[in-house]
Amino acid sequence: MKRHLILLGIYYRSALFAEMEYRTNFISSLVYSVLWTFWIAGGVSIFYYHRPSLGGWTFDEILIVMGLFVAFNGIMDAVLRPNILRLTEHIQKGTLDFILVKPANSQFLATITAVSVFKAIDVFIGIGLIVYGLNRIGHVPSVSELFLFSLMIPSGLMIIYSMWLFLASLAFWFVKIENFTELFYTFYETGRFPVTVYRGWIRALLTFVVPVAFLTTFPAATLMGRLSPWYAIGSLGMALILFAAASRFWRYAIRFYSSASS
Amino acid sequence: MNALRKFAAEYKAAWHLAIEYRLAVLIWMVSMVLPLVMLAGWLSIAEGGPVGRFGRTDFIAYYVAAILVRNLTGVWIIWDLDAAIRHGDMSFMLLKPYNPIIHYVAQSLSAKPLRFIVLLPLIAGVAYFVPGVNFALSPSMLALFFLAIAGSWAMLFLIQYTNGLLSFWISQTIGIADMWFGIFALFSGYLIPLDLFPPALRNALFAMPFRYMASFPIEIFTSHLAVTEILRGLLIQWAWVLVFFVVYRLVWTRGVKQYSAVGA
Lengths: 262, 264
What we know:
The complex is a heterodimer of chains A (262) and B (264).
Chain A: H1 2-20, H2 23-50, H3 59-93, H4 97-100, H5 106-112, H6 121-137, H7 143-169, H8 178-189, H9 200-209, H10 217-223, H11 230-253
Helix pairs in contact in A: 2-3, 3-6, 3-7, 3-10, 7-10, 7-11
Chain B: H1 2-20, H2 22-30, H3 34-46, H4 56-73, H5 78-87, H6 89-95, H7 101-109, H8 112-129, H9 139-165, H10 173-187, H11 199-207, H12 215-221, H13 227-262
Helix pairs in contact in B: 1-7, 3-4, 4-8, 4-12, 5-9, 9-10, 9-12, 9-13
């Protein structure tokens, strides 16, 4: 575990150095992220032009949901997407061997060691939005709320990682996988609104099958002191189950890999 | 006539590619989820009574029409165009005895029949099963609708193509296209019905080209416009097409000169 963390540090540091070569990209990424955030907020504000609340959330409250949406999106763009692109390339060209023969866990090497550092700007913008939203509703989270929130964020990360790992594993059968990963974005897009906006089976789907609700709505409600602690525990349980299942599926799928020479 | 024959050949090739990648086309269609997310938002709000002229059924009809219009008018060629210019493939296209735009027009239109066929059951289902939905399905209205669709597509195509041609000078063309999509999505009626904006903003958007890129055909399809309004709209829309065409010609002639100057 510790060795892997050190390895991850080395990989990310060299990625950072590589990106520092193109410093102007940092500025354009920053401008892009800020504009994009305003775009999301602008699109939602039209609802509040007509009504004071959307799915039971005021505009200030929904800013917290949006902050989580932007932050998790940053993680997906910075870490998950580059890895999937690299993985599918390896599978297409049959060069995954170079990863498989390295003396470390192949799932670790193949699925989180690539990173686009500048895309992580969204994480900071998201945190900024959350703080701003809390400030506007005048709520200071208590220690227990912060504790539960800090349980839900790693759970959320594990949930997205597991969904992506599942989709990435499909690459061993369907070589062109880029399109499949778009499907996860499709579901993720729903997370820009609180899950209470959706009705009936769609809400159930977004809570239990593709648990987007655990990424944005539940952590936001927890931070505002609106949810019972059981949600944090449920979120952790959901994350562990999905992670175990996805890792198993990865190990099964990798057996179908055929390299270029064999 | 000659150009038409060349277009037909290019189109045939592009169509075969679209068929080859039909699963990808389907997945791209399914991922077009933003209008549905907005629809969910409006439906949840409309539970407390209609919003402006929109009740629950009106919202459903509007966003189904928006999905249809987006699929028939969407243009996704800039990645290819940008790569062709930067990697030098454009040089080979320039050697061919016709303007490269013909290739990209064919590429942009290649999957349209496929998308249309896939969407037919959705349109039919909503028209049949959702009471109160009134799509403009008479032959004459459909003819006008497809003229408006063609106009919206032409505007979006010329804008994206001209944007892509900027790769002759700069390397951030895709970034500009992303930002343009953001502006388009918010202000064309694709994600938000223009009538729900504050009146001043709505009127401004009606005076600008935005309405004619998505809202106008959606309004026709949801039976919101009378024939005279449609004819007037078509006139304005095709005038905008002409404007964007002139801009494209200006950028193209300058760009090609610049390109050969570098010796690529």
